[in-house]
Each structure stands twice: as C-alpha cells, then as structure tokens.
Amino acid sequence: QYCVTCHNERLKVADLELDAVDLSNVGEHAEVLEQVVRKMRAGAMPPPPRPRPETSVYDGFRTWLEGELDQAALANPDPGRSEAFQRLNQTHYRHAIRDLLDLDVDVAELLPGDAPDEHGFDNNAGALSFSPVLMERYISAAHKVAALAVGAAPRGEVIATFDVPLRLDQEYYQGEDLPFGSRGGTAIRHTFPATGEYLIKTTLQTNYVEFPRGLDIPHDIEVSLDGRLLQQFTVGGQAPGRPAPYSYEGNIRGDDEWEAYMMGLTAGGLEFQASVSGGPHVLGVTFPRETWEKEGVLQPPQVGYPLAINGMPDANPRIGRVEIIGPLLVVEPGDTPSRRTIFSCQPATAVDEAACARQILSSLARRAYRRPVDDGDVTTLVGFYEAGQAKNGFEAGIQYALERLLTSPDFLFRVERTPVDLPPQTAYAVSDLELASRLSFFLWGSLPDEELLAAAEAGTLGAPAGLDRQVRRMLADPKVTSLVQDFAGQWLYLRNMETVHPTPNEFPEFDESLRVALQTETELFLEDQLREDHSVVDLLSADYTFLNERLARHYGIAGVYGSRFRKVPLDGSDRAGLLGHGSLMTVTSYPNRTSPVLRGKYILENFLGAPPPEPPPNVPTLEEESEDGRTLTMREAMERHRANPTCAACHATMDPIGFALENFDAVGAFRQEFENQPIDASGSTPDGVAFDGPAGLRNLLLDRSDLFVGTLTQKMMTYALGRGLEYYDMPTVRRIVRDAADEDHRWSSSAASRT
Question: Which end of the chain is more exposed for a tag (fewer CB within 10 A), N or C?
Fold first, then answer.
C-alpha cells in the first residue's frame, strides 16, 4: 500500500521493484528486504509528504520482517568470509613492531598511509593492495627497523627534525613530560640509535617576517633528557645596537648589528653536544615560567591566527624546531629495551652462537607469524643469519635474519586457510590460531600476546568460556587504546581533526592547542567508557567529559585550570554524551561555517545506520545571501535549497538532524544566535516526532537506542572482519544486539564476544 506506489516494476524508483517480492518466502528476497529494513529502522520511508501507516503498524511490520529474515538465516546460515590474505596496514605494522621488538618507530616515514575504503576503515582486506613498489618500501622499512632494534651503528649521521606548530599556544605548561613550573616548548620521544655523542639544536619560533619574539629581555631555555637537565641557554637582552621600533614588520630597520643578531638566532639556533645512551628517551626543551605581569592595561593572551601574524616584538619567545643529529661518535649499541627483547641468550663462545641464534629466531618467528613454527621456518631465517654472521659477526647475523622475518608473507599478511577438500559454499569455523589473530588485531591492532597465543595453541580459545576470559582480559589491557584511536578514530572521523583548518577570519581563536584538546577529550572519554565497561548507550547520555583549561574556556565551563585533563561533571549540560563533543562538531563543518547537511548525514550514517544516497550530479550550490544582500540564516538557505525537488527527498531526513546541532558553531563552541538572529534548532523526523536542540536530538536517539547499538555493532563488525557487511550479516548483527541486552549492552558482553 505505501511502498509499491514508487518501488514497482513500472517506475523502478531507486532501482527497486518491491511488487515482485514474495513475502511468503522472505529468505529468497533477503538482499532486497534488508535494504527495506534499514530504511524503516531509520524511519526514512515513505518520505514526506507521502502518506505513512500508523506508528504501531509501521513498527510491527518491521519487527515481523526482521524476525522472518532472522529465521530464514538461522535455517540456512551464511557467515560470509574474509579475504584469505589481509596485509598489515600502517597502524598494525607499527603496533606489531612495538610488541614484537619493544621498539616504537614512526612508520609514517617508512610506509605509505592506507586510505579508508567506502566503509570508512583502512583495514579492509580487499582494499589493501600490494605492489612491487610497496614491497620495496617494506624491505627498506625492515632494514631500518632491524638496524635500530639491534643497535647497529648508523652508516652516517641521522638528522631527526621536530617542528613545533606555529599556532600552538606556548604560554602554559605543556604536559607531564616537561618539568613543573615550565612554560611552552616541547617534549620529544625519540629512540637514539646507539650510545654515543649527539648534536642537539634548538631554533626559536619566528613571526611571519622571520624575527624571534621576546628578546628585548633575557629568557632561559632548559634542555632536559628524561627529566635530567642537560643544558641551559639564555637568550635575549643581549642584542647590540639600536633595535627596530614598534614592530618587526620591516617598516623601520634597526642597526645592522642588531638585525644580524636577531637573524643569527633564527638561522643558527642554539646547539650543544651531549652523550646519550642508545634507546628511547624523552628530550624536553622549555622555558622556566616567569610569574610577572606587564604594566598597563591587562590584555587577553593572543592565540591562534592573531598571534601568527603579530609583528610586535614584546611577546614571550617560543620554541620553533628541535633537531637531533647523530650519532657523531658511536661508543656501543647500548642496553636498550629492544636489545633485551631480541637477545634472549648471549653465546659464551663462538661454538654457542648457532644454537643461540636458532633459539632467538624461533622465539621471534613464533610471535611474528602468530603460530607455532616448524624447522622450515627457522632454517630459512638461519640461512640469512649465517650470511650476516660471516660478514660482521653474531649480532649482524641476527640483524640479517630479522630483516628477512619482517619481510616474510607470514608477518606482513594475516592468512586464513580454507580447510582442505571442503565443498564450495560450506560454512566452517576458523581455527583457534586464526581467531587469536582476528581478536588481537581487532582489540589491540597488533599481534597476539603470549597468553592469547598459548590459549590458541592449547585449543581453549574457541570455547565460550575461554573466549570470554580473553576478551575481558584484553579490554583491561592498556593496548586497548588502539580500539579508541584506530576504530573510533575512523568511525567518528576523529582522525580528521589533524587536517581541519577553520578559516582565521571567522575563528581566529582556533589554534593547535585547541585542536589537540578537542581530539584528546573524545579519546579520553571513549577510553574511560571502555575501561569502566559502560553500556554503549552511555556514549550518548554520559553526564561527564574530560577537560583542561584551554578546552573548558572554549566551552564556557568555569573552574578548570592548567593543561592537565581531568574528569568533569556536566550537570545536565548540552555537552552530555558524544553529541556535545566539539571534535565531532568540528569535523562535520566547513572551514568557515557549520553544515546541517554534513552533520545530518554524519548522524544518519554513524549513529542510525541509515546513510542517505550520494547526491545527484550538478547539485546547485547553497545560496548564502538574499537578493538584497542580507546574510541568510542556515535554515533559510537550506529551505531555498530544498525547493529543488531533486534535493528535497534526502534533505528532508538529513536537515532536521543537522539543525538540531546548530547551537554548536564550526569549532564546537556553544551559541544562542547567529548574525544577531536567534538560532532555530527545532526539527522533526519523517514520522512526525519533534525535537529541539542538542538535548532534544539526544533524547530522540536514546528513545531509539536499539538503532544506535545496532549501528555501532555494524561498524565494529566491519572493522573486526576487515570487510564490508553484506545483507546476510544483518541477522547476526541483530542477534548480537538482542543477546547483549541481557548484559545492558556493555562493551565486554559475553554474548557479543562469542558471536
């Protein structure tokens, strides 16, 4: 009555012919009917102003249809299958190196990044291509990683450069890696290749005419290593001759000797040599905090774009760049964590070297290949060990073998083998070893640890009790932060925060400190939800968040001081749950304004599981001014846009959701009006349910929390399996949601983990 008027054999709207579907045999039409279910769960069909059945009839039919589809799937299960080969993406490669060798390397410098596929994740096996050029990059990466891991002396000086962002606010304490009482600067986590002499060079930040600020009076700079003071410099107050008056903008020059001094500090930097032991260290470069105020009228601190273009000389100096050059002289490899991990034995004599090498390589190969190794695996590595040992001794041999291990298909690919002689289209259980890899790369983004691998080898992992025990243990491990940064970072677009650039004219206060704070808030919130094992519905309703002073000031929340993030109650604020996070509002906006369309599409796709279709070609641009030159409100502009019948169908669903979030501007600050006009944040769903503002939208989502839980389940399954979900996966999604309800949909729900 309500569907086939459009979706029939004659009109074929959306290429859908529902009059050809036999509802007495739902299983035969599961692919089409799962599309119907998805639209109905979001209330998207029929689109307004088409007539709709009563809500009870509508929901009753959807429930019946889901039940019939689930029964058909139960009678003829189709679990699908992942690709037989899944290459480690850039993130998984980094984590695997970290856990295998106790070595954290910047993989972005070694391997190309992996773009998300159409499902939103960069670990889709079908999209992780492999080429001869990429293989060359893996070989080069293996050479550099192996040399760093065993502490081999570099062939020449290595220059590691660390730039401090121009728009990072350096007026405050920068975090726990720097001394208390310090201001600005940066803390660098760096792995020194070997014990020896290094040149450490610091350059001051300059304004846009390349003069450092704040040098009219002396300032101290302290350089520390792991909290121990290495060197102290004094800059400023020493410039000879007559300075340039008023500003550095070049309108009046200072004396030549004054200009030369200033430019010398910019070009030459401040440098010294230091003896540093090989391995990971934290190098800090910062200023002691000066607690004085300038005379005159107190001015608010400059942040963001105004500071970047300010040519005045009287602000505090800032750190612009730190370089670590070396080793200039190698003393020894050093006692590093990676060497302690690799060299599990040390041969007493040359006769013992072969046996020790075999022991080392057997242990590393078992972890790297995620399975027991046989003589063939070890013999291959021993051959490379012998070639290196013949050239430069025992440790060089281990380095050669490690390079071979890191380029092995058994390390670079997750391989799932189909049982021999299995008839086509036959479902089968993955082995415990394959399940261990699936689980570890899902929750940790890395290799199975010893306990998980041992459980798989013993055959206890696949049993419900064994799987539940391992899932709960893994969720309590610090490595679960990968699930936040990798899965949630892509599901919620948090990774995009690194590339957003709000326009300075509209948002001059947006700086690097705020960018980092917005992303950190959401990551800490998600990590807390995981560790405390909340219901996933709490993602929408939690009455707390994590703030530091910079972000609290941006949100207008009083009583939060300092750079440290802490848990802050919200007390019924519009900030409750994920919808109140400025990071989500920023990544769903344009650089110069909000976008109800982007925000509405974001909620539909990531919270309700009902993404709208792609826009048709030649969509007209949004008109932002009226005929008389008046700036239109966003609602007025969108009403004009929806006047186009081609645009109206999709926008009727997206726009009301987006308008409910208009109280948040394009960088997540709360507002009541725009262009001196009050913001209208009201809207309604296609089935007539009204809501108003962020709180109203949040309540709507909570009333339909099964949609949110189902969507999150779909997203997590997509990420966990490394493939897009198909229609035959949806009964499993619904079963997870139903079964996990008995445990309040908590993250560690045993029913969900077993599925």
Answer: N
Of 409, 366, 380, 436, whose CA–CA distance to 142 is shortest?
Answer: 409
DSSP letters spanning 212-246? BSSTTS-EEEEEEETTEEEEEEEESS---SPPPSS
**The one-letter amino acid at 698:** R
Question: Over the stretch 50-62, which tens digit does the pLDDT of each residue have?
Answer: 888 888 898 899 9
Residue 353 near residue 240 (C-beta atoms within 8 A): no
Residue 228 host element (H or E): strand 228-235
Q: How far apart are CA 357 and CA 248, in angstroms?
A: 63
Helix 90-101 and helix 353-369, axial crossing angle in degrees, nearest 10: 140
Of 193, 188, 114, the residue nearest 146 (C-alpha): 193
Count of CB atoms within 10 A of residue 173's CB? 19
Rg (CA), the chain: 30
**Residue 213 burial by Cβ neighbours in a 10 Å radius (0-12, 13-18, 19+):** buried
CA 469 to chain centre: 27
**CA 57 – CA 52 distance, rounded (Å):** 10
Give me 423's structure tokens: 């008839």
> Residue 545 and residue 578: Cα distance in Å, rounded?
9
Nearest-angstrom CA–CA distance, 624 and 645: 19
The C-alpha atoms of residue 629 and residue 593 are separated, in whole angstroms, by 18
Coil, strand, or helix at residue 5?
coil
- DSSP H helices, 643-704, are 645-659, 693-703
**C-alpha closest to that of 568 among 552, 544, 549:** 544
Q: What distance in Å separates the CA atoms of residue 653 and residue 599, rounded to the nearest whole number?
A: 12
Cis peptide before 49 (omega within 30 of 0): yes
Q: Which among 319, 21, 6 is positioned nearest to 161, based on CA atoms?
A: 319
Please, what is the average pLDDT of the chain?
88
Please answer whether residues 591 and 547 qualify as being in contact, where contact means their C-beta atoms are separated by less than 8 angstroms.
Answer: no
Handedness of CA 557, 558, 559, 562 (dihedral sign): positive
CA-to-CA distance for 95 and 444, rounded, in angstroms? 8
Distance from the first to the final alpha carbon of the chain: 37
171: Cβ–Cβ under 8 A, 6 or more apart, which residues? Answer: 183, 184, 301, 316
DSSP run (H or E) holding 195: strand 195-204
Q: How far is CA 324 from CA 37, 188, 194, 330, in A?
A: 58, 10, 13, 15
DSSP readout, 21-56?
--TTSGGGGHHHHHHHHHHHHTT-SSPTTS----HH
- Which tens digits make up the pLDDT trace of 667-703? 999 999 888 889 999 988 777 788 999 999 999 999 9
The mean pLDDT of 221-232, rounded to a whole number, is 95
| pTM score, whole prediction | 0.89
